[in-house]
Amino acid sequence: MLRELRESSDLQPLTRCRHLLVIFESEGAAWLDFSERTTPANAIDACRVQFVYDAAAIEGEHARQIKGTAFGFLSCLAASVAWQMTRNLETPDFAAALEQGLSAMRDLREKGHGSVSHPGAGFPAERLAAVIKDPGYRFSRAEFPGSAPKSAPASPKSAGMGPSQAWSLLVDSQRCRQRTDDQPAYELARLVLLNGPIALYDVPHVGIGNLIAVHRDEIESLRTLDQLICRYRDHDKGKLPLSIGIFGPPGSGKSFAVSQLAEALLGKQRWLEFNLSQFDTLAELNGAFHQIRDRVLQQQLPVAFFDEFDSQHYRWLQYLLAPMQDGKFQQGQLTHTLGKCIFVFAGATSLTFETFGPPAPSQDALDDERKAHREFVLAKGPDFRSRLDAYLDVVGPNRRMVVAPPDKKAGKSKRAVSNGNNEITETISGYSFREDLEDLTFPISRALMIRSKLGCARDEKLDIDEALVRALLRAERYRHGARSLDKILQPLQAARPGRLQRSLLPPRGQLDMQTHATGFLAQCDGAEPARTVPPMSEADVAAVAPAIHRVWRELGRKGGWLKPWLDAEMADLPAAIEKYNKKQKDPEERKPPWLGKFLIESNREAAGRMPEILDIVGLRLASGRWAADEEAAVRQHLEYHLELLAEAEHHRWMQWHLQQGWRYAAKKDEDHKRHDCLLPFAELAEVQKNKDRDAIRHYPDFAKEAGKKIVFAAADDPHATKPRRSAAKP
């Protein structure tokens, strides 16, 4: 977008605006603030960009899920922008306006202009105004200078030569003064491993069933498959099967990826699985086709998963061509029609679709190379490739590999080795591979895979030794992919739900079968010191608690939910409640006299837990005032982890209330200590979640009230202490 604004003569006049809003349907919007430019030539580089986005969706995805349409979508956004300008004309909060407008657009898409049972109601202005006031949808926010983003790599082929200059939200979310841009996402992976997928809420990702992907290429591939399967399911007449290829190293989780996609879109009952390496005769393959045909005759859309289709020297490819091309298979003298179905072919000999089959021989190729390619052609390998409708490359728990210049000294297959520059190289079926140094997301894939194999619930907090976390996420390589990781995790899984300690690891010899044991154990020993979180001083609590109440009070006024007996300074709450009670003739309307002091203690408790919550994402309180760029970096870091921190804030708020004797009830009742928000964070209404999110967003303001600032905690933090280490198993 910024490149087009910079280079397109047709779009450059737009940069003369003071504020430019760009909408990506209801999935996101960008606010470009050009107020700091000095000349028209530097408008883009000098602008400040705020991006409001749905981290789990792409442009148009919400609309595709809903049949029908409406009109007035941009009116929703215009109304939210106008409302924000009436509230503060000098410095309107356009980021909030975009979030409110996008929420209203989604509400209009889902509910239209009202129920068909109430015709003639007209444009639902009142309903949409309520949504703008209290958004019912959650959008993430990111801020960056216009000079930061650059183009992403044109294709995976251009990757692998080192960290690119392509800007990404995920890389930016990991950036702070102590870290470099080419650092893999170990910090975010640690949060995912300990807290679950909520740590990814504000990072672009795709979630399909239990499958979650964060790498740009995986996201695009999965979304392409999602759209392809949906179109085939809803619109295709089904004369030909839909053919999809799945490629990746053994143990990368190919069957899991496609099964989650199929279950999410078609249901569990549609899945059929056949391992072609176990077939001996053509009759067995025809039997598989008959099973598929039977499902079709039952009015189902079956998904047939052909595992190891490239086994036995590509023997089965010739028999798969006719079903893929014509939707028919021959048995004896009879030709049978398959009908509408989906074929999924998972290979076992190729890391990627690009390297399926041996490379075409060059003029100086060896005889073995020419023979291998000739056999692949005779086995109908190129014909099979041309009949695939789509493909997915699955990586697994290791860093992805990309094709490197050919190694003439390498044989057909060579074990992964280090080339002396801490870079893994490997040769498989005539192709040389090297690690993709631009793949910074592989630790996150490991974290998700570890949680899945340990049987963690989606919102479960994992109790695990920090040294073990470091080793599992930073291991150089798992020799056999997900299978090796599974072997290492088996003794840990048996120890759950107890704390997972380093002493549960397999013996060194068995560990070395699955990974480089010396390096793995060295990672355990090299775990960063565990930070001790010093409690907030009494003076700081006394300064911050009233600020927390003031912000909460102001939000309540804006939202229209502030009760009259709470509209007072924190210290004056007991008197305000007493004054309110005197005006109430009905005793049922009076508030308990202890409520004022309780609310004061509640605000003090909220102030006291700030250091603990900040520590979750590597932040701490420090004395002094920060510069503008430091404050902006901290505020953006909080935004990138907003959902995780809001959940932590709510959990600790709930725990404290339960300790004070409060219990859940559908309706709030102070007299009997009942509260309707004593629920897990995931079960709260968006309006209630926003209170916790707003509290986190105002943490920098709370710190200022105490004369402090929020900083990134470095490894040499003076508050750091050496972790307690578990003894290694002999």
Which helices and strands occur, and which strands form pairs?
Blueprint: H1 2-7, E1 19-24, E2 28-33, H2 43-46, E3 48-53, H3 61-64, H4 73-87, H5 94-111, H6 125-133, E4 140-145, H7 169-174, H8 186-195, E5 206-208, E6 211-213, H9 216-235, E7 242-247, H10 254-266, E8 271-275, H11 282-297, E9 303-307, H12 311-314, H13 317-326, E10 328-331, E11 334-337, E12 342-346, H14 367-378, H15 381-387, E13 390-393, E14 401-404, E15 413-418, E16 424-428, E17 431-435, H16 442-453, H17 466-474, H18 482-495, H19 508-514, H20 517-525, E18 530-531, H21 538-559, H22 573-583, H23 595-608, H24 610-616, E19 619-623, H25 628-640, H26 642-659, E20 663-664, E21 674-675, H27 686-697, H28 699-705, E22 708-712, E23 720-721
Parallel strand pairs: 7-12, 7-13, 8-9, 9-12, 20-21
Antiparallel strand pairs: 1-2, 2-3, 3-4, 5-6, 10-11, 14-17, 15-16, 16-17, 18-23, 19-22
Strand order in the sheet with the most strands: 8-9-12-7-13
Low-confidence blocks of residues: 153-164, 715-730
Question: How many angstroms separate the termini?
Answer: 57 Å
What would the average pLDDT be, to the nearest integer?
87
Discrete helix count: 28
* Major sheet: 5 strands, parallel
Specify the structural class.
Answer: alpha/beta
